[in-house]
Amino acid sequence: MADVRFSARDATRTPWDVIVVGAGMGGGMLGRQLARAGRRVLFVEKGRSALPEADGTIRSAMPELAEPRAGRSPQAYFDALARAGRSTDEILDVSGRFPKRFIPFIGSGTGGSSALYGMVCERFFAQDFAPRQYFADPGDSTVPEAWPINYEQMAPWYTEAEQLLGVRGQADPLRPESASVQLPAAPPFSRDNQPLVDYLLGRGLHPYHLPMACDYTEGCVTCQAYLCGRSCKNDGGRNGVLPAVTEYGAALLADCRVVRLEADRRRVQKVICEHRGERVALAAKVVVLAAGALATPVLLLNSRSGEWPRGLANGSDWVGRNLMRHLLDWIEVWPQSDSRITAENKEIGLNDFYFFQGQKLGTVQSAGAMTTLAPMEMLTNNPGLQGKALRLLSPAVRPIYERFFSGGLILAAIMEDLPYLDNRVQPSDDPHSDGRQRLQLRYRLHPSEIGRRATFLRQLKEVLAPFRNLTLRTGENNTALGHVCGTCRFGTDPATSVLDAQNRAHEVDNLYVVDSSFFPSSTGLNPSLTVAANALRVASHLNEAHFAT
């Protein structure tokens, strides 16, 4: 196995073909393909390395559970988050009357958020690539008539991504195009999920086993929301960055935050980073941003200069705008009166309400037990005032929590939200000096989202009426940032998009973006497989356009 350790000094001395900023699903899969093709690839990742050689990594549990006392001090808490592959960024939400600060539950480190994800890797519907027609009243949304590419163009890349990620599952019976997708079978539904599957089938609905990027090794618990300790989880780190580094000669520079890009009118000249207190300038023929749909636009906006007064590649003034995050609502259901579900159960998919009465709503998935997804420790073991207060109240609150909120199966209702210019992410006005990145976010629900969400939840409640169920409304909560996208959208018109159809910045010849920033609509499905497939597509284009011999 190649040595994955790499110094900043080494990085400055190497003539790179490609610098990939971010080592998540998009960056990992693109970097793997380019390194495999013989390109000199450097991954620059602000988080820690979670590759097998990394010391001190927290696996097999969330840090709040693995190191509960870390929540007593901010320094220990943020250190534990970093070692668990979690972001320590701070977001200031200025959407409401009173600003609110929070730490988003997203990934940071090799694998990015895919190292924490529930492994659902599902193709978008063919209709998702022509979205606007499915919304009765999109209002002032910028949702386009069509993406600049269609399902048929993406299909071969979906197939390759599914193979590289080891995706297993059933075809969705409501999608004709999925009939030709031959995935290996996933394990049978668990006894926690089977009663609900039988009930849904009896209602004439169409549940299926979600396609999962999981090896299902013996004793696999799927490791949703934390790093896998047994190499069951297939993600951007394990299946992208690791083979790129250990098999194909790429390099990884972790603990290295890119603070700005220096560019002339046509090309990025330098990638300016901070690595363990040292300022580093790197250079490559091509720079690919894959830092996530929050950090990527902020990096471009922080790269202002005389040549780029509104931010790099921001002639349209659309960088950071059109932020989408899905409206995610949790519904806890007790399929049997004596349900005592404690295991993670990311199994059931249901798309009977994806297209409903002439417009789009979203998907429904089983997501595990409440005790797994939101344990008391998540609330109490943090250094904020809320955590301190709940630690004092825990002896009294815990019995109530365990009686009324545990034992049920969580269903996630994931509804498509539309893009709007006023929903956006920007650099913070108060960056501080402790090395943590700070962002400012503004996101509000518009009439389309409010109306469709009410319809979606009403339909689900009607289906689940025979069972005890509890709706945990999180869709309006901006701290639910699991599927952020859209902030550097691609399109054919430079006035209304940031990237072209090949994900290259319209105005910068050697700058590409391959994280979910490029989505012009969020769809109602998990984005991971589309991010991976598109990264493979862009890698093929880069090999032909920039490195053809």
TrEMBL record:
<comment type="similarity">
    <text>Belongs to the GMC oxidoreductase family.</text>
</comment>
<dbReference type="InterPro" id="IPR007867">
    <property type="entry name" value="GMC_OxRtase_C"/>
</dbReference>
<feature type="domain" description="Glucose-methanol-choline oxidoreductase N-terminal">
    <location>
        <begin position="100"/>
        <end position="327"/>
    </location>
</feature>
<dbReference type="InterPro" id="IPR003953">
    <property type="entry name" value="FAD-dep_OxRdtase_2_FAD-bd"/>
</dbReference>
<dbReference type="Pfam" id="PF05199">
    <property type="entry name" value="GMC_oxred_C"/>
</dbReference>
<dbReference type="GO" id="GO:0050660">
    <property type="term" value="F:flavin adenine dinucleotide binding"/>
</dbReference>
<keyword id="KW-0274">FAD</keyword>
<keyword id="KW-0285">Flavoprotein</keyword>
<dbReference type="Pfam" id="PF00890">
    <property type="entry name" value="FAD_binding_2"/>
</dbReference>
<dbReference type="InterPro" id="IPR051473">
    <property type="entry name" value="P2Ox-like"/>
</dbReference>
<keyword id="KW-0560">Oxidoreductase</keyword>
<feature type="domain" description="Glucose-methanol-choline oxidoreductase C-terminal">
    <location>
        <begin position="421"/>
        <end position="535"/>
    </location>
</feature>
<feature type="domain" description="FAD-dependent oxidoreductase 2 FAD-binding">
    <location>
        <begin position="17"/>
        <end position="81"/>
    </location>
</feature>
<dbReference type="InterPro" id="IPR000172">
    <property type="entry name" value="GMC_OxRdtase_N"/>
</dbReference>
<dbReference type="GO" id="GO:0016614">
    <property type="term" value="F:oxidoreductase activity, acting on CH-OH group of donors"/>
</dbReference>
<dbReference type="InterPro" id="IPR036188">
    <property type="entry name" value="FAD/NAD-bd_sf"/>
</dbReference>
<dbReference type="Pfam" id="PF00732">
    <property type="entry name" value="GMC_oxred_N"/>
</dbReference>
<protein>
    <submittedName>
        <fullName>Glucose-methanol-choline oxidoreductase</fullName>
    </submittedName>
</protein>
